[in-house]
C-alpha cells in the first residue's frame, strides 16, 4: 500500500536522462512476495539522473560501467548495484520494517515518512477496516486510534455516531472532527429534525455514506499542529480517508470479490427474573401495572386476560374471545363483569429477546476491478450492503459505486479523479427519549416501554391491533401505552440519501523544483427524511395518535478548491527544503424544505393529501424550511527543513477569512510549528535494543468560527401564531430572544504537544507516546443571559477551557518464529481531561446539553460536561437523609452527579498468524465516566431483572441512612417502594460508574496458500469469520441489567453520559469470502 | 499544451478570486427588526400574557390546594429551574415586546394598542412582584446591561399603577388603528373597567402595609363605580386546534384524549362535595368523574388501605372525599402512578372545556371530546370584584355590606360557571341534568347556607374565613388571586397538611429562577421559602 501512496511524490521527483550510455534494464521485485514493484526510483549515484520502474517493476536506464545504481523506494531499504558488464540487473528490495520509515498521509494530502513528522498521526490500515460487520466507518474505528472517542447513539442499524478527538475544545460549537476523503472535505453531519425529546435519535450521521470496503487507509490527525493547514475546519481533528478509487494505485488488472454475511442480534438484554408478574405491592389479584411488582406466580396461578379487562369498551368489544360468555358484558368493574373475563395462566412468558427482537441478516457484497496501462490506471468498485436491525422495522440498505482514474497526460501533467455515488436507505421505528415510564411528550419510541415488559405479558401471543380501526391494543387497562409490535409495524422513520462525491486533482511539474496542484472537491447529497406514523398509537399526543406524516428534503453541498504550489530543493548536502503555498476556497450550502401533516384519513397511506392539516413546523415547533450558507477562504503555507534526515523542522500557517462574523473580525491567522529529531540517526546509536528513536514537539493554533447568523438581530415571526375556537388564524411577531452580537469573533485554540516514538528489540516493540495540552480562549458561548435584559441568550466570546491528555500506542511482537508463527499485540491508551477554566461574564454555569435541571454543565474549575441533577439529600456527616415515609429526601438544589468523561479508554488488539491462518481479537476497556441510565432505572424500579430478586420481596426493607433528626433510619418499606421510589425519585440513584470491559472484535481467517491457488484462476482466496461486540460488562452497574455504556441518548453533539432508553447495542457475527482474480 | 495549461491555471485563478464573496451575514430565514408590525406584536403580547398568567396561576392553585401538589416537600416541588420559563416569557417575551410596541404606538398614535399593552404590562408587573417580590425593572430590558438590579417590589408595583392610569387615558383618547383584541373584541369601555378593577386589586393587596392609602383609593374606585360587571368577564378563550398551534386549554389537552394528567385536590373536592353537607352547584362543572364509586383496589389507590397520617387534624379529609368516585390526591403526595388514568377525576367543563358531569361517567377518550379544548382562563371576573370589595368592606371599612357582597360574589360566580358552560356543546347535557329552576333552587340553598354561616361568625377573622373560602372556591382556575388571598388573609385557614409531617416552609414567594440567579451578577437567591413580598407583613408561620 505504502508503495502506491508515494507514487505522486516519486513522479514529482523524476527527471529525464540527458546523455546516452549503455542501456541497462532489469526488474525490481519485492522480497515479501516476489512481485514487481512499480515506481521504484533508480538513480545513478552522485548524479541527478534516474528513472522509475514501470508497473511490473521493470526499468531501463543508460549508465556506464563503474557507476552505481541506487534503488530506493519509501518504506523499503534502499539498495545499490554497481554497473558492470551485465546489461540486466535484477534487484530484490526488502521492506524497511522500522516504524519510522512508514509513510503517512498528513494534512492536504501531503505524504511524509513518519520520522519527519513532529506531531501524532495514527494510521489505521485497510485490514482493520475492510470486511467488518458495521456499515459505518466510524464504528469500525472504535478503539483503534488512541485519543479518539467514538460513541454510538444506539444500536439501531444506521443510527448516528458521535466522535470527539482529544476531548472538547468548544462549548457551543461542534466538537466533531472533519472528514476528508481523497483530499477534500466530506460532510459528516447528522441532520436531525428533532431534539432528543422529540424523536431525533434515529437520524444517521452522514459518514455512513462511505463504503468501508473501499477504504485503503485512514489517518487520524489529532493535534492542532497536525491540522493547521485545514484552518478552523481541522480544529477538532481530521479523519483523512484515502479510498481505493482515490488512491491512484497502479497495478495489474485484477478483480476482487468479497461476500459477507453477518447475523445481527441484540447484544444484551437484562436477565429477567421469572417469579413475579405485573402489579404493585404484590397485591392480589394481580393488576396490569407498568411495573412488575405483582404477586408471586406460585401464589396466583391464574389471572384475568388484560384485554378482556380493558377500561375501553372499544377494545374489549373487539375481542369477544376474552369473555367467557360473549353475550354478557365483561370488563373491569363489578364482580359480574370481572368474572366474565377469561382466566389465563399467570406465568413468566417468553422474554422480549424471543417475543420481540429478531435475528437480523446482514449481507454485504463488494466487487472491485482495478488495472492500468503504463500511463493511466483505473479502479472501479461496487458495494452493496443489505442490513436488518435486531429490532423489527429497522433496515439499512447501502449502494456505493466508485470510480477512480489517474493518468499521466504529459510528462509534466498528471490528473487523478475519483467519483463516488452513494445511495443509503434507512428505516427504523421511532426512537425518542424515555424516562422509564413512556416516551417523552407522547412521541413514540420503540424502546421506551419494551425493556420492562411485565413478565406475564405474552407480547408475541396477544393481539396488538384492534381489528375495528387498526389501532394499537396492549395490556394496560387504560390502553395508555402503545404496543411495541404495533409500533414497529406501523410507525417508521425513514431516510433516503443520494450522494455524489468527487475529488479531482491536476498536477503540473513546472520544473524540477516546482510543481503546482489544483484540487477540486464537490460533495453533494440530497437526503429525504420521513416520519410516517399511522394513526392508532396511544400516549396522549394527539398529533401522533391521529396519524402524523413529516417529510423533509435536505440538500447539502460543499464546493472546495485548493491551489497548491510545491517547492522542493536540496539546499546543501545536508539540508533539504520542502515548501508549499496554498489557497483554499470552501463554500457550504445547506437547505431543507419540509411539510408535517396531521390527521390521517386512511390508515396506511402516507401522502400529504391523506391528512387533514399540513404545517411547515415540526412537532417541537421548529421550522422545517430553512437554508444556510457559509464560505471560508484560506491561504496556507508549510515549510519543512530536513537536516541530514534526522532533524526536521516543520513550520505551518494558515490565514482564514470567514463569512460567519462581521467584517472587522473576519480574518484570522493561525501558525504552527513542529520539530522532529531522530537521535538514533543523529548520534548513530541505533542498536538491536534501540532500533529507532524519535522525539518530537509541536505547537499549533486554530480557531473556531461561530455558526452563521449570530451577529445580527432578527424578529421571530409566526404566521400561525394563534387559532381561535372558530379556527381563524392570527399571526405574531416578537423581538427575538437571541441577541445578535456584532462583535462576535472566532474562538482561539492553542495546543502544545510532545511525543516519543521508538522501535526496539529488532522491531519487536514499537511505541508512540504523546502528551498534549490544548486551551481554548475567547470561547464562543451561547451564553444564557438574564431574561430581564429582554433577551435569553447571546453568542459571546467568553470563557476558557483546557484539555490535557496523553495517548500511547504500542505494538509488541512476543512471538515471531521461523515456522511462521507471529503474535502481535497492539495496545492503545488515551486519556483526556477537559476542564472549564473560566466562563467569564459572571456566569456560574452553562448547560451544554440536556435539561436545565438535569444535564451536562460547564462550571468553572470543574470537568467539562459535568452531570448535575437531583441528588439525595445528606446531613453534615454525609449520611443520606430518609423521609418519614421511608424514601430518600431529594436535594433542593441541583447536585453534582459525576463526570461523564471516561478517565481513560484503552484497547488491546491481538493478532496471531500462522501460515495462512490469522486470528485476531480486540479488547476494550473504558475506565470510569458516569452514565445516567434510564434503562437501569426502568428495569430495576419496575422489578424486572434478577437484581430485584436478590432481596426477598415478601420482606420489608430499610433504606440505609438517617432520619432528619439524625437518628438511624428505621422506616420499613416494601420491596416495591424500595426499588420504585429509590430509582424514580432522584437522578443520583440511577447514575453509575461507566467502567466497561468489552470484546469489541474477533476474527479468524484463512488464506489459501499461493501453491494451492497456482493453477486456479484465483490470485488470492480467503475466508474470514468475524464477530463484533461479542461480550461486554459494565463493571459497576447493576449486574443483571447487562447494560451497554456505548450509548448516547442526547444524540450526536456535545452532550455525554445519558441513556434515555434509546436502544441496546448490536452484536454481529458472520463471515466473509474474498476472492481476487 | 503549455499554453492550454497556462490558460487553465489562469481561469482557475480568476475563478478562485471572483468567488471570494463573504457577505452571508443576514439570516435568510428570518425577518429583520425593521419590519416590525404593531398588530402582530400585540398579538404575541396578548398570547404571552396568557402564558404568564397561567404559569403563576398553576403554582398558586397547587399551593392553595385547588389542585394536587406533587412531590413530597415544597423544596423538591419548586426548584429554581421551575420558573425559568415564566421569567423568560415575562421579560424576554412580553415586556421586551411591549417596550417596542409602546414606541411604535407613540409614533403612530396607536393609543388602543398602547392601552392594551400598558394594561397587560401593569398586570404582568404586579404578577411578577406578587410571585417573586423584588424584581428588575428600572434597569431591565437594556441589551447593554447584562446585570440589571432588582427594584423594590413596592416601586415596581407603583410603576404598574402609573401604567394603569396611563392606559386609562389612552382608552379614553382618540386613536388610529384597530388592534386584534383576543379579550374584549375592541370594547374599550370594558378595558377601562378592567383597569379600574386591577386598581382595586392593587390597593387591596397593599392594604396590610398602607391601610389608609388603600382605604381612600378603594373608596374612590367604589364611587367611580366602573369596575367589571356581569358580561365584562376578563377571560382568555382557548381554541380547538391540536397542532400548529395547539390552541386547546392545557388542562383539556392533558386529559381529554387518554385520561391521566393532573390529579384533582382531595381537599378542594371535599369542599365542593362534602364539607357543606350538600354539593356546591359548581361541583359538576369543575370536576368530571370517570367513575361514580370509590375504588376498593389498593392497586388503584394506595391510600385506601392506609391510616390517616397522625399529624392530620381530627376533622381533616384524607384520601377520598365521600364515596362517589371523586378521585384525587392529598397535598404533597408523590406516589408512583397506578393504572388509574381512566378512573381519576378530571377537569370538567368549567373552565377547561371538558365534559359536564351528569352522573353518567365514562372514561376519557374520543367518545365525547366536549368543546375540543375551547376552555377559558378566568383572569378577572365580576364575582372577584365583589369578593374583593367584601374584603375591603370587612377589613378597611369601605362602603358596602360585606355579607351582601359575599352573596352577590357567590351568585355571580355560580351563575357565570353555568352560563359560560351553557355556551358550550355541553349545554344540552347540562339542562337535561339540571333545569334552570332546579339550578336556581340549588344556588339559593347554597347562598342561604353561606350567608347564615357568615352571620354566625362572630369575629372578623371568622367572617374573613367564610369570605375567603367562598372567594377561593370561585377562583377555581385562577391561582394568582388565590395565592394572593391566602398570603394576604390567611384564608381559607386550616388547609390540608402535606402527607409527610415535615414538608418544609410554605413558599411565601417564589424562589428566583436559575436563569436569573445564575446569569445576573446582581442577583442573589433568596435565603429560603419564608421570604415575603413587600405587601405581606403577616407572620412567618401564618400559613402552611
What would you say this structure looks like, in words?
The complex is a heterodimer of chains A (1077) and B (544). With 1077 residues, chain A is mainly β. Chain A has 13 helices and 55 strands. In chain A, the strands form 12 sheets. Chain A has a 22-stranded antiparallel β-barrel. In chain A, strand 43 and strand 44 (866-872) form a beta hairpin. Chain A is globular and about 115 Å long. The two termini of chain A are 18 Å apart. Residues 1-20 of chain A have low confidence and may be disordered. Chain B has 544 residues and is mainly alpha-helical. Chain B has helices spanning 2-18, 38-63, 74-77, 84-108, 111-132, 153-172, 188-205, 211-224, 250-253, 266-273, 283-286, 382-396, 402-422, 427-433, 436-456, 460-474, 479-489, 514-517; strands spanning 135-136, 150-151, 234-237, 264-265, 287-288, 328-329, 346-347, 376-380. Chain B has a two-stranded antiparallel sheet. In chain B, strands 3-8 form a two-stranded antiparallel sheet. In chain B, helix 2 runs antiparallel to helix 4 and helix 13 (402-422) packs parallel to helix 16. Chain B starts with a helix and ends in a 27-residue tail after the last helix. The chains are: A mainly beta (1077), B mainly alpha (544). Chains A and B meet through helix 9, strand 27, strand 29, strand 33 and strand 34 of A and helix 1, helix 2, helix 4, strand 1 and helix 18 of B.
